[in-house]
Amino acid sequence: MEPVLKVMRDPLFAVGLSVVLAVLATRVGGCLVKVVLAAGSIAAFVWLLVSFQPFENFVVAVLGVVATVLVVLVISVAVIAVVAVVAVYVMHREETRRPRRLREARDKAVRTETEYSDDEEIARLERWRDDLDALDTRLMNILESLVDTDDDPGLSQSIGRVVSAYFSGLSPHLPDIRRIGEDCDRVLLDLARHLPSSFTGVDTTRLLELASSRTYLPSRDELEEWSDEEIPWYGYWAVRVLCVNRRWRATATVYAKVQYGKVQVLRCFEALI
């Protein structure tokens, strides 16, 4: 013990120890310490694995469990992906094979024969357009409130917000969405029954069918006709898959009805002007 204490009392030992500590305090020294510790841990793990049979058995058992879990996860993801692809393909074949048919209207489309001047017709069309625009604004306000875009969260928080909005975000807003849908149905019925017969470009029977239908998801051709833009098939079917959730399907139905009504009013404006 005395020789050790003698060495530690030596000024040269103190200087050397100071230099070593100063090097370790730098970034390079910290990295060197981490490398040494990592190498030592690996060496200790390999030594235990080679020298002790119980530790080897334990490691093999743990690796077997981890590998089994990973294989099950990979198989589950593959099965879900195959089912999703098959479902999208079947929906695509059904969509392109036969025309869309909605529920038959409860009432026949009977247009009024009242004659209106051009100014009166424009005023009526503007009222319907304003009603549909108001419904569209109410619905978009609900959708925009699901995810707060004012701040800039990280990637994980953004994914968490989107998932939460998809699975449970619409639940408290469903009564408002249903009221918007009921108001839209009344506007569509009003359009079908009170448009003069001169507006031949509007299908009043379809308006009545939409007003009485609880689910309406337009085809890709209809969406392209409304927007005058080409919609990729994968984007359209991705939205259709998201609408498997009944809350989002109900919301998409209301949105599609509002947009269809706006398109019909716009056609009436074009025919009148």
Structure, described:
- The protein is an all-alpha fold and 273 residues long.
- About 2% of the residues have low confidence.
- Keywords: Membrane, Transmembrane, Transmembrane helix.
**What is the CA-based Rg, rounded?**
34 Å
How many DSSP-defined strands? Answer: 0
In angstroms, what separates the terminal alpha carbons? 108 Å
What composes the largest sheet?
A: none
> Tally the helices: what do you get?
11
Q: Indicate the proportion of strand residues.
A: under 5%
The class by helix and strand makeup works out as: mainly alpha
Query: What is the total domain count?
Result: 2
- Runs in which pLDDT lies below 50 for 5 or more consecutive residues are 97-102
**H/E order of the elements?**
HHHHHHHHHHH
Q: Helical content, roughly?
A: over 70%
The global form is: elongated
Let me know the average pLDDT.
Answer: 77
Provide key terms for this protein.
273 residues; mainly alpha; 2 domains; 11 helices; 0% strand; elongated; membrane; transmembrane helix
What is the secondary structure topology, with strand pairs?
Blueprint: H1 2-9, H2 11-25, H3 27-51, H4 53-97, H5 118-144, H6 155-169, H7 174-194, H8 204-212, H9 220-227, H10 233-242, H11 246-272
Transmembrane segments: 35-52, 58-91
Keywords: Membrane, Transmembrane, Transmembrane helix
